[in-house]
Structures are given as C-alpha cells and as structure tokens.
Amino acid sequence: MNCPFCDEEIKDKALVCKHCGRDLSLLRPVLDRFAQMEARLESLEAAMHRVGSHVDAARTARPLQMSAAPLPLALPVARDILLPLLAALLLYLAHLLIVGVWDLNPWWLRVLSVLLPLPFGWYHARSIRATLVAAVVIAALSIYGMLVTTSLIDHVPVLPQNGHDWLEVAEFAASIGFSYLTGSQLGGWLRRRRGPDEESLAFELATMLARHSATKGETAGGLRLRIESLANYINIITVLLTAAGTLITGIIKFLPGIGS
Asked: Are 180 and 174 within 8 A, CB to CB?
C-alpha cells in the first residue's frame, strides 16, 4: 500500500510511514476498511463477468436446444402431414366446384389457389425442409387431383399432351407452392415483430450464414445480434420474392392486356 500523505510505498500493517514519519494509527481502521471494500468489489466484478459469459453462451445455444428438443408425437404429425393434405384437399374441392359443378371462369380458381395456401403456410412447420416439402406436396397433390377430375369430366388424358399444356400445369403448381411459401415467410416476419422466431425459415438460414461468416473475435452476443438482423432482411426479401412469384405464375396472365 501507499502512504496517504506522501504516496510512498509502505507495508500494509505499518503504523508510521518510514518516509515522511506521519502517524498512521488513526487512519489504520479506515485503510483496512478500504482494502476490504476493494477486495469485495474485485470479487463482485469477477462474478458478474462469469454470469455474463453464461448468459451469452445460453443465448447462442438456445436455437440448437429448441430445435433438438423432442416434440409430442401429435404435434409434428398434425403440422407436417395433416395440414398439407388438408390444403391439397381444399384446393381439389375448389377445382371440383368451380370447374365441374358451377362451370365458372378459371380466373376464380386461380384466385382461390393463390389465397387458400396462405394460412396453411402461416401456421405450418417453419423449418427449411418442412416448408419446402409441404409446398411441393400441396402443389403436386392438388394439381394431380385437378388433372384427374378434368380427365373424368372432359374425357381427355390425365397428363398434358404437349409442351404448352405442361407449361400451364407447371405455372399453376408454382403459384400454389409460392403462395404457401409467401404465407410461411409473412407469418415469420410478423412473428419477429413480437420477438425472434427461432423456428422460422429465415432464422434458420440467418443462423447458418452468420456462423459460416463468423470471425474469431466475435462474441456470442454479437453473433446473436447479427443472426437476428440477417433473419429480418431474409424475411423481407423472401416475402417479396414469393409474393411476386405467386402473382406472376397465378394471376397476372389473366389480367387484361397482360395474359395471352
């Protein structure tokens, strides 16, 4: 320790400064108290540093823990199997009523095919694999059911017979798939406004991108902030792209002056 009068170094238990000769006996209780407070402060700072390290580690590991946590059997079955089947069934029934029963303009079927998958994309499982698989399943099953119905009503082959017909079928299937993807991404973006949606497609992509480009000196907290920022941008971009794809493949060609 240093003498409070001359600032020269002295022994911790000294009662008289050997340099300036001042009496330290009256200040000894105060000096001892300051020494105790300094030791406690250092101990408290070390404890806070350890707590901060644990919090950063928990925030980084949370997405992995949530994705790896086992789910009840009924939940993935309902989300990953029943909902896509229900969406495909509703699209098939809409085609049957509009084309086979009411004989309405096909434009109404295109509008329903764009709007109906949106809520299923909103509430369905939002991982990358589940989202893409569900979009393909809904489009494939509903389109095949529509082709079978058309074949039975008009007595024509089930599958298209030329390139133009195949292109029409592909555009129709794409509009259904894009509609589902739009609902999924729009739901994820709106949920992010209430807090990070760590099961969303955008968050999963952002996590992969952020960890792939992480630097050695980046802290866990900094990585977390970068993941959330990337997820927000990815959500906005994918909503715009899938919505544009839905309109281009499903509706725009039927508008006057645009469609053939």
From this structure: no
Average pLDDT over residues 66-70: 44
- Select the more confidently predicted residue: 251 or 129: 129
**Could you read off the pLDDT of 97-148 as tens digits, one per residue?**
998 889 888 888 888 888 899 888 887 655 667 788 889 999 999 999 999 9
Q: What are the Cα distances from residue 38, in Å, to 26, 33, 43?
A: 20, 9, 9
Question: Comparing C-alpha atoms, which of 142, 124, 114, 127 is closest to residue 83?
Answer: 124
Domain ranges of the chain: 22-69, 75-254
**CB count, 10 Å around CB of 214?**
13
Average pLDDT score over the chain: 78
- Positive or negative torsion for Cα 41, 42, 47, 51: positive
**Angle ∠(200,197,133) on CA atoms, nearest 5:** 15
Question: Which run of H or of E encompasses 234?
Answer: helix 220-250
Longest dimension (CA), the chain: 117
SS3 of residue 6 by DSSP = coil
Burial tier of 234 (Cβ tally within 10 Å: 0-12, 13-18, 19+): buried
Q: Give the total residue count for the chain.
A: 260
Q: Percentage of the chain with pLDDT > 90?
A: 17
Average pLDDT over residues 15-27: 75
Q: Give percent of the chain with pLDDT exceeding 70.
A: 75
Rounded Cα distance, 173 and 160, in Å: 13
Instruction: Determine how many CB atoms are found less than 10 A away from the CB of residue 200.
Output: 24
